[in-house]
Every structure is written in structure tokens, then in C-alpha cells.
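## retry 2 of 3
previous attempt timed out at serialization; input unchanged, resubmitting
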Amino acid sequence: MKGRDKEDLRNHSAAELRAELVQSREKLFRLRFKHVTAPVKNPLEMRTLRRHAARLQTWIRAKEGAQS
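## retry succeeded, writing output
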């Protein structure tokens, strides 16, 4: 993920970040399922998606903590 993409996502609301997190988790699930049945072309994409989901969770918690 590029730096400007991170900054762009960081400026979204918590609800928008949650929607992005759901999409990221679904994509990771589909990729893992494909990987079990047959090797995927780029297995490092799973790591990227996992880290992206963790980054989104961190931003969501930070936004929720700031609102409290």
C-alpha cells in the first residue's frame, strides 16, 4: 500500500473503515480458500491483506477511542 493511500484511508470515518475491513477480510478468506485447493500465483498477497486488515483495525480503534 502506497503512502498516499494510507493517508487517504486514515482520513475516512470509522464506519467507512469498517466497510473496508469487511471487504479485506472477505478477499483474504477467498484467497485462503483458493490456496488450499490449488497454489495461488502470489502467496505474499495473503500477508499483505492480513497486514492491511490489522492496519484498518488499528485506525478504527484509534478513531473510536478519540470519540469517547
